[in-house]
Write a structure and sequence with these properties.
Layout (H helix, E strand, L loop, with lengths): L3 E5 L5 E2 L8 E5 L4 E7 L3 E3 L34 E2 L14 H4 L6 E2 L26 E3 L2 H4 L8 E6 L4 E8 L18 E2 L1 E3 H6 L19 E5 L7 H4 L7 H15 L6 H9 L9 H10 L11
Parallel strand pairs: 2-11, 5-12, 8-10
Antiparallel strand pairs: 1-3, 3-4, 4-13, 6-7, 9-10, 9-13
Helix pairs in contact: 5-7
Length: 300
């Protein structure tokens, strides 16, 4: 059998609260990467939720700036129309001059239902970020083989929790240039509010500017796969290397946010893998629950 191979993935990766992120690919022998691993705080996408955007006095979940209010290309997170050409029956936020974007458009307002008077939020896939667990696909990930529908996992080592999701094409603007190459946008870790809740995040309160995402999260992404492809890695000669690397990556992140765990992992391998790193058992247990088999952990 082939051994698992861990390599740095070049790129100016960054994320919420992480100016720099180290990404590592995991492959089986000389094969293509089966997984991409990195650590970042969850950057929450609220788009599509009824209370995502609205007037400040309604206490919306997100800032209108994150819907394109001040963007040169105008609104992208809410339905918006030019007051002069808006369809009949559409109610727009007032005063128009205050809410207008760079193109002169104004958010459309919900006129009934639970979130009456909030703005109408949208996503590229027409889904609700509070209901559907999805990841946001930016260009840097797309150029490394990640596509719409590909599978991802978020591990929370401090609680032994895991949340899963699939990537939503178009939501992150994974755009291509005229030659068909992805325009690299190296942002990482953006997921729907549902993923944040599923991994143990507390619901955002009105008094909070941002939801409290200040807890460690390890992402495992499976390019070119719509499943958790862990079984493909579990056949390696030393399957324990995957949870060992994740444990060492988590340690490196505690010491210096965004630092790679590869140096510590390579030292661990060079020393004969004699002592499993702290946190190994908990991470192995989480992976085992998702179908990954290790020799170093046995469920009690």
């Amino acid at each position: 059998m082939a051994e698992l191979k861990f390599e740095n993935v070049p790129g100016s990766w960054s994320g919420n609260d992480y100016p720099k992120i180290a990404m590592t690919s995991v492959s089986l022998g000389s094969g293509p990467p089966v997984a991409l691993i990195f650590m970042a705080h969850i950057s929450i996408d609220y788009d599509g939720m009824g209370n995502a955007y609205g007037p400040a006095n309604k206490c919306p979940l997100d800032s209108l700036n994150n819907a394109g209010w001040k963007d040169a290309k105008g609104y992208y997170g809410v339905k918006a129309y030019n007051p002069k050409t808006a369809p009949a029956g559409v109610v727009l936020a007032k005063p128009y001059e205050y809410y207008q974007d760079a193109l002169g458009c104004v958010p459309a307002v919900q006129t009934s239902g639970r979130y009456k008077d909030y703005f109408i939020s949208v996503t590229s896939g027409g889904v609700d970020a509070g209901v559907v667990p999805f990841g946001v696909l930016h260009g840097g990930l797309a150029s490394n083989g990640v596509a719409e529908g590909n599978f991802g996992m978020v591990l929370r080592p401090d609680q032994g929790r895991v949340a899963t999701f699939t990537y939503l094409g178009g939501e992150g603007g994974a755009l291509k240039d005229k030659k068909g190459n992805y325009i690299n946008d190296y942002r990482l870790g953006e997921c729907s509010y549902k993923v944040f809740l599923n991994v143990g995040g507390f619901p955002k309160r009105c008094a909070e500017v941002y939801a409290n995402n200040n807890f460690p999260t390890v992402y495992i992404i499976f390019p070119r796969s719509n499943t958790a492809a862990l079984d493909r890695l579990g056949v390696g000669d030393d399957a324990d290397d995957l949870p060992a690397f994740i444990a060492l990556q988590a340690q490196a992140d505690v010491i210096a946010r965004g630092t790679s765990g590869l140096p510590a992992f390579n030292k661990y391998v060079a020393n004969g893998r004699k002592i499993k790193p702290p946190g190994f058992d908990q991470i192995a247990f989480v992976l085992q629950a998702r179908g990954y088999v290790t020799s170093g952990y046995m469920e009690q």
